[in-house]
Design a protein that fits this description.
Elements lengths: L1 E2 L2 E2 L3 E2 L3 H9 L42 H19 L2 E12 L5 E13 L5 E8 L11 H8 L14 E11 L2 E10 L6 E11 L5 E10 L2 E4 L8 E8 L3 E14 L4 E15 L19
Parallel strand pairs: 1-9
Antiparallel strand pairs: 1-2, 3-11, 4-5, 4-14, 5-6, 7-8, 8-9, 9-10, 10-11, 10-12, 12-13, 13-14
């Protein structure tokens, strides 16, 4: 199975309907997952995230630019950031928490990886640190690391736009940034390729995507890693070197459904210590306008 143009081997979720309902709820409250389970402990989000309630107006006030122009511009930047990210070294920390009846962590596991390469030059996530597994209900396998690493960070590059329907739904503030909000839905779903389904926040001044909230879907339903149930991710980006918006924090909340209880669980991924290892390619110049037709 693939997501967008990259291979993405993940299993179909067994609980697609609840996840779809949770995503639909984003139109009434942008961050519903924050209320499901307790705080994330030491690995907290970037400071002072404050996302207000999304407007439920049927017809939002039009943006300063035509939505088509906003989409065109941010997708071109997504092309640039997708390429630039390959020129950065960073440390990735993955943390899974299971919560008990008292809303306190009852099981935890933490894994730290750095970019590595095989003798053949194939890139992979090299494990540099991991805690002793203390999870009671979940298993975290090497296949999960590989699946999480293959989730595309930039689903809406210019080459992918034709596969999606994007609808402008209003403006909201993320931290101190005023943003345009777009609902994103795939035009069609396939068996061997997954597509993003969710919401994106676009800086209304510089037209950068600064946050995403959503899931990946195929015609079989929602997708997730081989052994973990997480499907919906809330992902923030960080401005690195004053030029590139790169993912720095992702979070997903779900439940382990047992016979006599539902155990709240949380997955947190943090990207830190960005270091440029080679110069990214400069952005492509804008296409020249077509010459006017002679009378």
């Amino acid at each position: 199975m693939t997501i967008a143009e990259a291979p993405f081997s993940i299993a179909t979720a067994r609980h697609a309907a609840p996840a779809a309902a949770a995503l639909a709820a984003v139109f009434l409250l942008i961050a519903p997952c924050r209320a499901q389970v307790p705080g994330p402990g030491p690995l907290t989000p970037p400071p002072d995230h404050n996302v207000r309630r999304l407007s439920t107006e049927a017809t939002p006030e039009p943006p300063d630019l035509p939505p088509e122009e906003i989409i065109k511009r941010f997708s071109q930047k997504e092309d640039q950031y997708l390429e630039a990210r390959t020129h950065f070294w960073f440390r990735k920390t993955i943390r899974i928490v299971e919560f008990g009846p008292d809303d306190k962590p009852a099981g935890e596991y933490e894994l730290v990886t750095e970019p590595g390469a095989t003798a053949e030059g194939k890139l992979y996530d090299k494990i540099v640190k991991q805690s002793q597994a203390k999870l009671r209900f979940l298993r975290f396998e090497p296949e999960d690391i590989e699946a999480l690493a293959r989730v595309p960070a930039y689903p809406l590059t210019s080459g992918q736009l034709a596969k999606y329907e994007l609808k402008y739904v209003g403006k909201e503030q993320v931290d101190e940034i005023e943003c345009y909000l777009f609902q994103v839905k795939p035009k069609t779903v396939e068996r061997q390729r997954a597509y993003f389904d969710g919401i994106i926040w676009v800086d209304d001044k510089f037209l950068d995507v600064v946050k995403t909230y959503g899931k990946w879907v195929t015609d079989l339903g929602d997708v997730h890693s081989p052994t973990l149930p997480f499907t919906i991710f809330e992902t923030y980006r960080e401005n690195v070197d004053g030029k590139y918006w790169l993912p720095n924090y992702a979070r997903s909340d779900d439940f382990v459904h047992l016979k006599d209880q539902n155990v709240p669980i949380r997955l947190i991924i943090k990207w830190t210590d960005f270091k440029q290892i080679s110069p990214p390619k400069p952005p492509a110049p804008p296409a020249a306008p077509a010459p006017a037709a002679k009378p």
